[in-house]
Amino acid sequence: MGIDLTIIHWVYLTFIVLIIRMMVLKKDTSIICIAGIFVIAFIATGSFSASVSGVFTSFVFAIKELLPIILVISIIVSMSKSLLDTGINDVMVAPFAKLIKGPNLAFWVIGLLMFVISTFFWPSPAVALMGAVLLPVALRVGLPAIGAAVAMNLFGHGIALSGDYVIQGAPKLTADGAGLPVSSVIEASIPLVIVMGAVTTITAFMLLKRDIKKGVLPAAIQTAAHASASSGTKEFRLKPAYRNFFAVLIPVLFILDITAMAVFKLQGDAATALVGGTSIIILLLIALTGSHKNGLENVTKYLIDGLQFGFQVFGPVIPIAAFFYLGGDGFHTMIGAELPKASQGIVNDLGGALAAVMPISKKIGALTVAGVGVITGLDGSGFSGISLAGSIANLFSHAIGSGAATLTALGQVAAIYVGGGTIIPWALIPAAAICNVDPFELARRNLIPVIIGLVVTTIVAIFLI
What pTM, to 2 d.p., does this model score? Predict the structure, then answer.
């Protein structure tokens, strides 16, 4: 299965190992990513000038891919700061503060609500909604920002996205790759998603509690909007009547967004755009109401604050995102060269090669499919390689004589947990940015729970085959 690996594949794999090594050592990976892009471009083109240009082009490609996320995060931060400056935030969080009494409950409430919203509308708009409404409450009751980000990641980009039972984008891709009915993959995935979700969230919660107790994670009562307050927009408090009005209006508008998503079947980028547009309108209304004379200027200042914050957060991520996009669909666009005709992208080729050299048994089959899911998830989308995981699961199931749906579901869960937004730093940017935490630190904190979850889930899958 797949194609013969070329020197480009091996060099790319070498740089992946180096990047992972630097992440483990908590070192910056930008130089290694840039070097990797340059070396691979030089091997592919044989031109020094094309390789230099390829580094810049890869950055442009990555920014284009990330721009919708950058904008929606920046806008949410702008709106959040206006809520803080006017005192609306205090009124909004008061009812939730009465219900959420401590950090433990905050973790699980954020997680469960994130799961529910993500199940129907995917995680990106869910992150925006959680950040606007519940994050300030969680921080006030002592949940560290990193804890809120972990909850959003694992429940939204992990549990909800890996099952994808309502929208069914993931199971359709894997089912098509395996030649199975979507319903069979969904049914087989239920126990695996439950096991993976329970292990990852409970492990993450226990590690979080341990570090809070040790004082490693002191609760900092601030939001992303606080972090962007440095531009000096002067605080202006609204009258109580206006604060109460907006405290009701804002949740109503977001509820209308959710209703519109359901009625018009808006998903992914379309749902995120709706939330972003609503946030802009809220920002305009607040700024113009709070300061009649300087309202227009305040809108611009808030937007600048948000955009500065957004690009500050995304800046370190662009080089590593560019490198891993190179391993997916961006190879030709970035460096102007072609891979062999049979190639499905560098990352997917590596996953196929792994499957081709592994012996056949239930244990090896499960381990290989999970490994392929992890490898193909390294491109940061979570979805690009799950068709390949389904195809490989189908091959192993024929050799084994059973377990096609279970193996397919296992590959789906592994790929989406790694690439869909819990491990790869640029894939989990939305939650990291909304919570004002380092995406690389968030990835490191998710790493142990996800590894343990994958091991346990793979073992369970072996028994189910």
Answer: 0.68
